[in-house]
């Protein structure tokens, strides 16, 4: 007889945890720099379209499967078909030992800058905040630019101490369990995060030059819809900020009671997340407008590195603000740290949940061991070459790892488990009906998103690839309305074809030109290597025997 599975104390606790995981650091730090690097308003259209075409259907999939199976991602996929357990372990594996590792380093930067905001050490550095962040703080700057990934130095003591603090906080909270640790902390973190962001957005709107930044942020560039790279970045960002492919949402949904409104929870999570991302972008780009006016430059020229956007733009603003600069800086970096911790907690919880489902484990010891390993692996990111490692690992784990897991999930659930079966379970668990007004609503949303995509393809050069893409969009629109279940059609056809097409273009470009101008050895050894090692670990765990009671349930 298996032990009783923990449950959320309330639906509100679950929604806050799901929103906290999704909102996270990625919607302030990562969303802002990805938007900046992809042309501001030009990025927002593909981002919103990706939300409806890929994001919401996959979020429903993860919530639905987690609730149906009452298990973590590896166990849920094992119960669909034992051959697919490795997909779940790969998802939680490269998340725990990849994304979370550098994620905690960025949180450590945030903790450091909370204290830096009190005395603004960058004001006495030639080159300002940019030189301070890349040079004195990270130790990454050289006379020729930034250090390469193999130009390692000793760890930065400031970042190392902050990193240890981040892992200690994570360990204490997750080690206490779902009800005693995760849920109470999330209930405080998420409202506080939203409150801080409202203050920052309102504050930023009154900065001189804010209008210039907002115009750049919100003005669409229709021609960008024809650039497949923007679509890859948009879909990758949707995966990152909705926490798709991480195993988190499957694990969290597994703790829901039998009667749960899964559809409502998914829509609240999706719209709160994407809305927060766009809302937080107002503060970032209003600030960039302020910097552009002060320096006499265009918005696109004020920051030289996307990854360092938040840690260059805001310190520079703090030193130039005519009123309460210290409070502004402390508020902003506190918001970043809180956002990051809300996500890091959920990432660890997903892996611990998977281990608990497969093995008899002592939660406290497992969490302590994982946090120690995470801290040790993260030390490479505290060296002078750390930002290059972060850039490469982030690119490969998000652009390929998350997207591949999402693709496999759609195929496994759509074709093996059954999209219609999933929809029936979601209907039975709550009050929404896919065949009623909600189904019509989602069909209209997806039709609109696909129609915008078709319009954007008219900006592309004519050719076989463009013709096939247009044909696929038209067939997708027809299928959404002609098929009995729009969710089933999305999982079986629309999402797999769309993701395969983008992966094909991305890989082709990768072979022609290694990512970021790095050497092929760095790209293969660090980026591809990290994916392969975590995949091998997933296969090893997959081959390891289950505890007897779980095997009997799975069979």
From TrEMBL:
Main location: membrane
Subcellular locations according to the entry: Membrane
Pfam family, one: SNF
Gene Ontology process terms (BP): sodium ion transmembrane transport
UniProt key word Membrane: yes
Membrane-topology annotation of the record: Multi-pass membrane protein
Transmembrane among keywords: yes
One GO CC term on file: plasma membrane
Name by which UniProt lists this protein: Neurotransmitter:Na+ symporter, NSS family
Naturally occurring in which organism (per UniProt): Thiohalorhabdus denitrificans
UniProt lineage: Bacteria, Pseudomonadati, Pseudomonadota, Gammaproteobacteria, Thiohalorhabdales
């Amino acid at each position: 007889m298996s032990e009783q599975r923990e449950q959320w104390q309330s639906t509100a606790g679950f929604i806050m945890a799901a929103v906290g995981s999704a909102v996270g650091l990625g919607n302030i730090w990562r969303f802002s720099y990805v938007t900046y690097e992809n042309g501001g308003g030009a990025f927002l259209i593909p981002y919103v379209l990706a939300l409806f075409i890929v994001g919401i259907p996959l979020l429903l999939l993860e919530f639905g499967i987690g609730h149906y199976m009452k298990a973590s991602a590896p166990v849920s996929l094992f119960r669909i078909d034992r051959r697919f357990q490795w997909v779940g372990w790969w998802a939680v594996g490269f998340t725990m030992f990849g994304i979370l590792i550098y994620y905690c380093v960025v949180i450590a930067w945030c903790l450091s800058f909370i204290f830096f905001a009190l005395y603004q050490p960058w004001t006495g550095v030639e080159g300002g905040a940019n030189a301070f962040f890349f040079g004195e703080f990270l130790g990454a700057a050289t006379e020729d630019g930034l250090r390469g990934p193999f130009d390692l130095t000793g760890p930065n003591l400031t970042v190392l101490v902050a990193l240890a603090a981040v892992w200690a906080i994570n360990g204490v909270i997750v080690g206490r369990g779902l009800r005693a640790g995760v849920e109470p902390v999330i209930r405080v973190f998420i409202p506080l995060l939203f409150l801080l962001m409202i203050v920052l957005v309102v504050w930023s709107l009154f900065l001189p030059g804010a209008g210039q930044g907002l115009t750049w942020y919100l003005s669409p560039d229709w021609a960008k819809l024809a650039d497949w790279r923007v679509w890859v970045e948009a879909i990758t960002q949707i995966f990152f900020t909705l926490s798709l492919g991480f195993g988190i949402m499957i694990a969290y949904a597994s703790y829901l009671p039998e009667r749960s409104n899964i559809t409502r929870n998914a829509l609240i999570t999706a719209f709160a997340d994407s809305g927060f991302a766009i809302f937080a972008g107002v503060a970032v780009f209003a600030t960039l407008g302020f910097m552009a006016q002060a320096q006499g430059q265009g918005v696109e020229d004020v920051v030289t590195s996307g990854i360092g956007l938040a840690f260059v733009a805001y310190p520079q603003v703090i030193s130039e603000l005519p009123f309460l600069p210290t409070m502004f800086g402390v508020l902003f970096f506190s918001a970043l740290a809180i956002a990051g911790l809300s996500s890091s907690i959920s990432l660890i919880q997903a892996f611990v949940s998977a281990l608990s489902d497969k093995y008899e484990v002592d939660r406290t010891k497992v969490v302590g061991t994982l946090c120690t390993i995470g801290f040790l692996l993260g030390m490479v990111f505290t060296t002078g070459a750390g930002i290059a490692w972060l850039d490469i690992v982030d690119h490969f784990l998000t652009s390929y790892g998350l997207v591949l897991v999402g693709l496999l999930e759609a195929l496994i659930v759509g074709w093996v488990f059954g999209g219609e079966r999933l929809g029936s379970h979601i209907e039975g668990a709550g009050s929404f009906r896919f065949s009623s007004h909600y189904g019509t609503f989602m069909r209209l949303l997806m039709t609109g998103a696909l129609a915008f995509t078709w319009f954007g393809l008219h900006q592309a050069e004519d050719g076989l690839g463009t013709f096939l893409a247009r044909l696929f969009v038209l067939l997708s629109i027809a299928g959404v309305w002609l098929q009995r279940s729009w969710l089933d059609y999305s999982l079986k056809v629309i999402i797999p074809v769309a993701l395969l097409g983008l992966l094909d273009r991305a890989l082709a470009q990768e072979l022609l030109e290694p990512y970021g101008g790095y050497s092929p050895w760095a790209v293969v050894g660090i980026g591809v290597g990290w994916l392969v090692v975590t995949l091998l670990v997933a296969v090893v765990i997959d081959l390891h025997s289950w505890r007897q009671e779980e095997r009997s349930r799975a069979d």
